[in-house]
Amino acid sequence: MDPVLTPADVTMTTDHAGRAYAVVPDEVARLLALASRKGIDTEARGICFESDPHPADSWTARTVRTIFEAVLASPETTEDVHAHGLWLYRKWDGGTFYGSIVGTSGWDADTRWWRDYANTRDLRVSGSANIASKDRRHVAGTCTFST
Q1: Pairing between strand 100-103 and 20-24?
Q2: What is the spatial distance between Cα 112 and Cα 110, in angstroms, rounded to a whole number?
């Protein structure tokens, strides 16, 4: 059974350069990391890729919406409604989190930086998490990850 994520399980933080990170339990991060790479050819060359779409009612889309809600509830986002790209989510139920999602064991809260980067790829979600907005009709609520 897939783990259930609540906003209380998400820690919103920034690194030393002010970039946003949503730190989630490792078991959630591992599943999201796999979802973020689904459909991306491992032999592909280039810089811009998008994962396969995950339906609006899927575990992946529900979990990403929970992360969006946690990020939007953080004090940092309250101060700046445009922070991290989620202002569209408030209005249109869709948007993009321009931050990183990482598992707890892959993040060092004291240094505000990656922990053992070379050995924690399974805890790093690739790319930006996206939820298609309600004006996208047939794909509304669909989740993808883009690099």
Answers
A1: parallel
A2: 6
Residue with tokens 């939820």: 131
- pLDDT tens, residue by residue, 29-64: 999 999 999 987 777 776 778 889 999 999 999 999
Rounded distance between C-alpha atoms, residue 24 and residue 70, angstroms: 11
Which contacts (CB < 8 Å, 24+ apart) does range 64-69 have?
64/32, 64/97, 64/129, 64/131, 64/143, 65/131, 66/5, 66/6, 66/7, 66/10, 67/5, 67/10, 67/22, 67/24, 67/97, 67/101, 67/129, 68/95, 68/97, 68/129, 68/131, 69/7
pTM of the model: 0.91
Give the H or E element holding residue 130. strand 128-131
Residue 19 CA to its chain's centroid (Å): 13
